[in-house]
Design a protein that fits this description.
Arc Repressor Mutant, subunit A; 2 domains; 10 helices; 12 strands
Length: about 300
Amino acid sequence: MITYYRKDATILLYPHESCSRSSFGFKYLSGAGLPIRLINIGWDRVTSPAYRWHGERRGGGYAVFQYTLAGRGMLRDGETYYALTKDTGFLTVVPGDHEYYLPEDAGEWEFLYVVIHGIDALNHCKEMIRQMGPVLNFREHPEPVAALSRLYRAIYEDPQLDKFTISARLYEWMMGLHRLAEGRGIVRATEELPGPIRAAVKLMKSSYRYDLSIDDMASSAGLTKYHFCRQFHKKTGLTPSQYLRKVRVEQAAWLLRHTDKTVQTIAAECGFEYANYFIKVFRTLVGVTPNDYRSGKKVDPVSFLRVEP
């Protein structure tokens, strides 16, 4: 998003807002082609209750995502009804027992939408719906919408944009949804973490070789133990103990790759009291034993290893 500053407020604008409302459709001559392809993308505003789409009366084999910018829409999914207000979006696969429409008392509904198809498109969307349901709230996590907004602006500025570039942008948007589904707002980059959580991570990375307790970590964060554990998991997707284990294994992997130290020595330097336990933890997180990782058996011994939840 674009950030504008003025004396009394900070205004966040999505990239598409520098354009005008329009829509773009795509047809492909290459059959199945790419595993995720764009059919339609648009920015629209409707004011008539005649606007209504039924999921069993419009063909099929594609997915629809629609994000409310202003006004209000409605989604019926089976026997459940959802109000689609500002900052919410719905995701659905066609055909299906659903319909979305402008309620008679709503006045208007302004939205950004995308229609996609392809094997990956359908599989990813079905998994998102399974994990989070058909309606998502992006008020606190706008990045997936920002990715879609960037794509709209890119196509608006260049309607001949390469289809591979478009598919890559769709994957960016889809991974944003996966990130939301996995942690409902997990922040991955250390510099983006809230100060208290960042302080605990800094302690882990500087003192991983020592016997750190949850109390030590909570104290560095300036939080109660309960609140610290709850906030840490919410922001990283891992418990503090799991994150410390991750830091230790990542450091051990670096030592295995860049030094000739024994497994026993590396275990001790990385905070594992017993080598056998270190081997067990390493194999659980990396998939191979430390010796196999070092020798390149079954897995490439990369220069730096990241362990993700």
